[in-house]
């Protein structure tokens, strides 16, 4: 068996298995090949990376360990907590404070808080530099 990357004239690339290279040529010549995405029958081999086996004196590569989702979330939470050090919680007045700082009506300072989706979109459209946090923040008055 041999596998080829094939490409149609619409530049869709897909993989197909054949008994031999001549089987591919025969099926192509008889019009038996077609793109599974668009149905185009004008198919050609796509550029492929060669499958070069490892040298006999090298140990096989070991697959990367699957990361622990809980550990990843804990690491993300630590990074976010570090980012928020020195930042002031302003709660639901975030949009108003950010807009006032951007307009020069208040002195700039690192802040974080809550904004509705509409408020966040309006801030972005007005060029106010804001970014969502990856994890929710527990307001200071609600912490244990």
How does this model look, in words?
The protein has 4 helices and 5 strands; from the N terminus they run ββαβαβαβα. By secondary structure, it is of the alpha+beta class. Strands 2-1-3 form a 3-stranded antiparallel β-sheet. The radius of gyration is 28 Å and the shape is elongated.
Write the layout of secondary structure elements.
Elements (H helix, E strand, L loop, with lengths): L1 E7 L4 E6 L2 H9 L13 E3 L23 H16 L3 E4 L2 H10 L7 E3 L3 H9 L19
Parallel strand pairs: 4-5
Antiparallel strand pairs: 1-2, 1-3
Helix content: 25-40%
Question: Which class best fits the helix and strand makeup?
Answer: alpha+beta
Widest β-sheet, arrangement of strands: 2-1-3
Give the radius of gyration.
28 Å
Distance between the termini: 63 Å
What general outline do the C-alpha atoms trace? Answer: elongated
Main β-sheet, in a few words? 3 strands, antiparallel
Number of helices: 4
Provide the β-strand percentage band.
15-25%
Rounded mean pLDDT score: 88
Give the strand tally.
5
